[in-house]
C-alpha cells in the first residue's frame, strides 16, 4: 500500500506566506487540479487556502475557488474574478466567491460556470441560532445539496468530494457535550462505526448526489468523510473558534485586572481531551483526495495525542502575564456566553490600545461553542487507527503547537517595530520579513512564524 509522504509538510502554512507569488502564479497555470473550498473563511477552510496554492503541495500548486458567505477580512489578499472572465486578476492564486449556501439559485448561478473543478472540499457548517436540532440538520443538508447539485452535473472533470463533519457523529445533543448514552460512551475512543447520529444525514446527501453522476453515465466520483475533534486554528469568521475565543477572554480579563478563571466542568479540566490541528485536517482531506487508500471511506482526524485543559490553562495565562485559577467547585462554574455579554465596548478599547484590526467581538468569538466544549461531563476521544491503516500517518503535537504560538508572541510582541506592523498591508508584511533576514538564521524562522501568526490571530 502506498504510504502518504509529504516531505516538509509540517509547517506548510508558514512556508506558504513566504513563497514567491510570481512562482506560484506561473506554476498554477500548468496545474491540472482545481479545488472548490466551501466554507473558506472557517478554520479548516482557511488552512486549505494556505496549503493548496503552494508549489510544494502534492499535485500543486492547485487552482482554488474559495466559497464563503461573508466578505473577506481586511487583511486578506485582493479578490479576483473567476478565470473564465479574467484569467490574471492579481497575483493571488485564490479566486473568492461570496454566496449564501442556503439560496439554491444563488449557489447555482455562482458555481455552474466553474466547469474546471476537479475536487470539492466542503468544510461549511451553520449553527443555525434559534433553530431546533431537526431544523439545523435539515438546513445544513440543504446547504450541501445546493452545492453538489450545482457542481456535479456541471463539472465533467470532477473526481472527488471531501466532506468535513465532526464529533457530532458521536455526540448528540451538541450543547452541552453531555447526556451521552452509556452504550456510546463505552465505545470511547470513538471508532468510525459508532451508530448513526446527526452528521450521517450529510453523508446521505453526499452519497445521493455522487450516485447521480453514476446514473447519468459519467465517470465515477469518489468521496471521503473527515471527522475532526475540536479544531485548533484560527479564522475570524468561524462559528467554532475555540483558540480565538479563549484568547479574547484572556485579553478582556487582563484588561479588567481579573484572574483567568476556568469556567467549566471538573471532567473537562482534569480529563483527557483530543484536538485536531486545522492544518492537519487540511492535509488529511488532501491525502484522501489524492491517494487510493482515502477513497470512499469515513475517517476520524485528530492530532493523535491527548492533552488536559489543566495543563493548557496556565500556558494561556502565562502568555498574557496574568494570574489564573482552575476548577474550583461546581458552584464556581459559569458560562462564558453570559460572562462576556456586554463586553463589546471593552473589546473596542483593547483593539484601539493595541492598534489591532477593527473587529466586532461577536465576529471573532464563539462563546456558545467554548461553553459546550469545557462543560463536557465525559471525556471525548477519537480513534485514529483507521486512518493509519489506510496510509495516513500525519500527526501534530498538541502541546507544542499551542505553546509555540504563545511563546513566539510573548517573545516578540514587545518589539515596537513588530507591534506596529500593519497587517492589513501586504507591503508592510513583506518589509517586515525583509528586515528579519538581516538576523541570524536560527532567529529567522521564529520571526517569520510570528508575522504569520500575528496576521492570523489578530491580537496579542
TrEMBL record:
Residues 35-323 form the PRISE-like Rossmann-fold domain. It holds the Pfam family PRISE. It comes from the Eukaryota. InterPro entries: NAD(P)-bd_dom_sf, PRISE-like_Rossmann-fold. Coiled coil: none annotated. GO terms for molecular function: oxidoreductase activity, acting on the CH-CH group of donors. This is PRISE-like Rossmann-fold domain-containing protein.
Amino acid at each position: 500500500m502506498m504510504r502518504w509522504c509529504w516531505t516538509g509538510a509540517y509547517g506548510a502554512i508558514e512556508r506558504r506566506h513566504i513563497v514567491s507569488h510570481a512562482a506560484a502564479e506561473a506554476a498554477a497555470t500548468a496545474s491540472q487540479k482545481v479545488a472548490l473550498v466551501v466554507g473558506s473563511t472557517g478554520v479548516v477552510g482557511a488552512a486549505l487556502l494556505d496549503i493548496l496554492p503552494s508549489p510544494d503541495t502534492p499535485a500543486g500548486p492547485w487552482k482554488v475557488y474559495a466559497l464563503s458567505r461573508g466578505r473577506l477580512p481586511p487583511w486578506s489578499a485582493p479578490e479576483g474574478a473567476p478565470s473564465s472572465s479574467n484569467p490574471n486578476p492579481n497575483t493571488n492564486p485564490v479566486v473568492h466567491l461570496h454566496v449564501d449556501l442556503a439560496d439554491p439559485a444563488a449557489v447555482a448561478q455562482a458555481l455552474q460556470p466553474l466547469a474546471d473543478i476537479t475536487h470539492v472540499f466542503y468544510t461549511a457548517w451553520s449553527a443555525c441560532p434559534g433553530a431546533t436540532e431537526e431544523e439545523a440538520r435539515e438546513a445544513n443538508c440543504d446547504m450541501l445539496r445546493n452545492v453538489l447539485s450545482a457542481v456535479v452535473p456541471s463539472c465533467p472533470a470532477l473526481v472527488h468530494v471531501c466532506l468535513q463533519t465532526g464529533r457530532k457523529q458521536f455526540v448528540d445533543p451538541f450543547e452541552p457535550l453531555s447526556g451521552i448514552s452509556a452504550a456510546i460512551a463505552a465505545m470511547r475512543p470513538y471508532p468510525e462505526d459508532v451508530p448513526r447520529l446527526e452528521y450521517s444525514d450529510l453523508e446521505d446527501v453526499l452519497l445521493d448526489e455522487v450516485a447521480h453522476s453514476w446514473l447519468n453515465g459519467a465517470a465515477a466520483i469518489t468521496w471521503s468523510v473527515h471527522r475532526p475533534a475540536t479544531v485548533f486554528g484560527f479564522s475570524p469568521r468561524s462559528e467554532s473558534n475555540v483558540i480565538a475565543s479563549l484568547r479574547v477572554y484572556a485579553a478582556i480579563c487582563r484588561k479588567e485586572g481579573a484572574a483567568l478563571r476556568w469556567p467549566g466542568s471538573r471532567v473537562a479540566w482534569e480529563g483527557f481531551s483530543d484536538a485536531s490541528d486545522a492544518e492537519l485536517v487540511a492535509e488529511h482531506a488532501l491525502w484522501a483526495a489524492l491517494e487510493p487508500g482515502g477513497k470512499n471511506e469515513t475517517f476520524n482526524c485528530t492530532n493523535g495525542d491527548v492533552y488536559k485543559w489543566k495543563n493548557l490553562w496556565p500556558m494561556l495565562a502565562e502568555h498574557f502575564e496574568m494570574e489564573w485559577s482552575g476548577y474550583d467547585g461546581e458552584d464556581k462554574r459559569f458560562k462564558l456566553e453570559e460572562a462576556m455579554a456586554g463586553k463589546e465596548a471593552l473589546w473596542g478599547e483593547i483593539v484601539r490600545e493595541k492598534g489591532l484590526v477593527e473587529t466586532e467581538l461577536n465576529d471573532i468569538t464563539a462563546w456558545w461553542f467554548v461553553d459546550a466544549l469545557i462543560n463536557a461531563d465525559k471525556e471525548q476521544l477519537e480513534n485514529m487507527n483507521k486512518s493509519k491503516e489506510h496510509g495516513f500517518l500525519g500527526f501534530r503535537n498538541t502541546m507544542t503547537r499551542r505553546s509555540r504560538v504563545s511563546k513566539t508572541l510573548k517573545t516578540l510582541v514587545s518589539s515596537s517595530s513588530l507591534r506596529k506592523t500593519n497587517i492589513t498591508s501586504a507591503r508592510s508584511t513583506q518589509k517586515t520579513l525583509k528586515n528579519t533576514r538581516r538576523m541570524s538564521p536560527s532567529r529567522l524562522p521564529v520571526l517569520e512564524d510570528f508575522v504569520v501568526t500575528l496576521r492570523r490571530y489578530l491580537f496579542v
